[in-house]
Amino acid sequence: MRIARANREDMTELSGVHDGAGTILFNSLWDRADFETPFAFVHCAILLPGGGIGYPRHDDSEEIFVAVDNASQFTHNGRTAVVEGGAAVPSRSGEIHAIYNHTDQETRWFNLHCVVPGGDPKSTDLGDDRVNAELESTDRLPVGRLDRNALKYAQMHGGRGEVGHRMVWQAEDFRSNFGFLAHCLLPPGTSIGYHSHDGIEECYIIIEGSGRMTVDDETQGVRQWDAIPSRLGGSHGLYNHTQEELELLVVAVCAEKGQFDATDLGDDLSQR
Description:
The chain contains no helices and 25 strands. By secondary structure, it is mostly beta strands. It folds into 2 domains: 142 residues, Jelly Rolls; 117 residues, Jelly Rolls, CATH 2.60.120.10. The strands form 5 sheets. It has a 7-stranded antiparallel beta sheet, with no helix packed on it. It is globular, with a radius of gyration of 18 Å. It starts with a strand and ends in an 8-residue tail after the last strand.
C-alpha cells in the first residue's frame, strides 16, 4: 500500500517558484510515473509568510488548488481575491494563476494536476509575483468551498453507516480527464465500503482525523496530510475506527474523459 505523507519536516525549501515571492516549503507526493491515467501529480506546499507561487499559464494541463488552512491571495485570469482555507480553485488549460501568502502565518495548499490527452503540456511564467495586486471580491473567482454544512449523508459503496459527501468540481468543469473533486466526512464508526474502479484512478487526501485505509487487501492506518492513491483496477475503501470525525478529499481522473465505473465488493471494512 502506497502512502505519501506531507509532513512539514520532510519538505524542501524553495524560492522564486514560477517567479513568485519569498519562500515556500514543497513536497511532491505523487508524480506522473505513479499513475496510468493522465493524472500528472499531487503536490503539497506550505507558503511561508510573504511567500508565494508566481504567475504561470499552463497549456494542455489543468490544476486544482486546494487551500486547507489560513488564507492567501489567489489570482485567477487577472483577478485577485483573498481565498480562505477550506476551498478548491480550478485552473483550466490556458488559464493563468498565482498564490501569495499575505498573512503572518503559514498557509498549506495541495495542488492536483492532470494533463489534457493528446496535448502538448507546457508552462509559461509571466514574470509577476502578484504581491501588490488589486483585490476584488472572492465571488469573482471560481472558488468551491469545502463546506461541511453542504454535505449530503448516505451509505457509500456498501460501507458502514452514512457518510457526508459532496462533489466540489466535476468532469464537465474541465477539458482534461479530471473526473471529480469530492469532499467527504466520515463520522466515528462509519466507512466508505470496499470497491474498485476499472477506468478511474483516485487519490484520497486526509485533511483531518485518522482512520484505517484498505488498498488491494492491505490495511494501514492513515492520518492528517496523508495522500493515498488507487490505480486502475485497484480496490480500496476507508474506515473511521476512531471517536473523532475523519475529513478527506477524493480526486478522480478518468482513463477516458467522463467515463465512470465502480464495483462494490461487499465489505464495510469494519473488521479489518
